[in-house]
Amino acid sequence: MPRDPLIGLVGKPSSVRKLVCMPDSQPSIPREQSDTFKSTAHAFDLANQTSANRTTALAIMANDLCQLSSSTSPVLYLVLTKGEGWETSFWTTLDMLMHWFTLSMGYDPSQDIVWLRGEIVQWIQGNLMEKWGSIKRRHVALKASPVDTLQSQFSGYGSNQAMVARTLDKLQLKTPLESWDPETIGKVANAFTDEKFPTVCALNKIDHPDADKNIAKIAKQRDPNTIVLTSAISEVFLRKLAKQGYVRYVEGSDFVDAREDLVADGDPDGGGLKELDDKLKTRVENLKDMVLYRFGSTGVVQVLSRAAQLLGLVPVFPVRNVNTFSSGANSTGVFRDCVLVSKNSTVRDVAKKVMGDVAIAYIEGVGGTRVAETDIVEVGKNDILTFKVGKA
After folding, report:
1. Can you give the three-state secondary structure of the chain, one letter per residue?
2. Are 319 and 326 a contacting pair, CB within 8 Å?
3. Is residue 96 predicted with pLDDT exceeding 60?
4. Is the distance from CB of 144 to CB of 164 less than 8 angstroms?
5. Average pLDDT, stretch 22-46?
6. Residue 11: what pLDDT?
7. More confident: 83 or 15
8. Which residue numbers delimit the Obg-like GTPase YGR210-like G4 motif-containing domain (predicted)?
9. Whether the predicted pLDDT of 233 surpasses 60
10. Lowest mean pLDDT across 22-26, 75-79, 189-193, 290-294
11. Quick one: which of 9, 119, 158, 259 could link to 77 by a disulfide (CB 3.0–4.6 Å)?
12. What was the pLDDT predicted at 79?
């Protein structure tokens, strides 16, 4: 079955820190060195978490990651499945980068983007230049297409022919491959980096006084669709309060209700929430004013959504009951499970990913409407499904 996307989280570490994860996530943390970045790598099993835990874990990792120092070498937190190690071959499984910045360090974080991209491009271009003589001779001898020749070189990065073809289509090169000069090879390396390693920039600590000027600098460099403003520590704080029964918090929104808010809305029991003391109440009000009301959310959920958009992924919610959207007979939560599939995937593709080889009698959508296996899955269409096991 297809695997979930894997995302590399990049940022500067204050030291070799232990990755803080959800208690039920069972993290695997290999301590091996990356040949590229010369820093300790941490791995985390994110793919098998529920959608709620996946977001929570990202918030905790981001908050931990953004405790920055003056270190000049960023660490790559690579999201891997449990048990896999850290080595050069990790590039074959990586689908995109998520670059976390802090906006409150008194330095120019926009240069980090230039540094990281430069490292990747130089690595790819250097590998091509080192063998370019033999690559050209083989290309001419086999009368191969540029796509076939480059795919044989880029396969080590986890590319495929469609990816290489898109890279060359963007460049529209007229010069034959055997006549490419170093400048042209550099353009190819740049275009391939864009295609293979799309990057979301998460600008963290947006509530700090000097955040605005750094946001403006980065906004001039990047496509606005690749930028998300975040406050990871706020997300962690709100989720802790909600778990401890002090507030009701709708993740990814600006809705935070304390006991007194619910009482004022007519609930005499205040939703069963605990009373906030003066210190907590002040912190929550400040968080609302500085983050939620100003930016609309903490941004952590939006980072995952933006990553899915850049990867061309569609979120699909398998449920047990298409009327209540619950996942089981004893489940009170809705949309507890989420899988990500590529654009133009069919309902059959989703069934294969969710159910494996189990025989399925039929599939239903919202309201109990039967859905054909050949129907296309899109956002808002055939993206809530229940699978009825049995012979058709």
Report:
1. CCCCCCEEEEECCCCCCCCCCCCCCCCCCCCCECCCCCCECEEECCCCCCHHHHHHHHHHHHHHHCCCCCCCCCEEEEECCCCCCCCHHHHHCCCEEEEEEECCCCCCCHHHHHHHHHHHHHHHHHHHHHCHHHHHHHHHHHCCCHHHHHHHHHHHHCCCHHHHHHHHHHHCCCCCHHHCCHHHHHHHHHHHHHHHCCEEEEEECCCCCCHHHHHHHHHHHCCHHHEEECCHHHHHHHHHHHHCCCEEECCCCCCEEEHHHHHHCCCCCHHHCCCCCHHHHHHHHHHHHHHHHHHCCCCHHHHHHHHHHHCCEEEEEECCCCCCCECCCCCCCECCCCEEEECCCEHHHHHHHHHCCCCEEEEECHHHCECCCCCECECCECCEEEEEECCC
2. yes
3. yes
4. no
5. 32
6. 65
7. 83
8. 202-321
9. yes
10. 22-26
11. 9
12. 35
Side by side, the strands of the sheet bearing 75-79 are 42-44, 75-79, 7-11, 96-102, 199-204, 227-229
Residue 383 in tokens: 């993206």
Pick the CATH number of 313-389 from 3.30.2350.10, 3.40.50.2000, 3.10.20.30, 3.90.1150.10: 3.10.20.30
Would the pLDDT of 55 be above 50? no
Q: Token pair for residue 362?
A: 């039929």
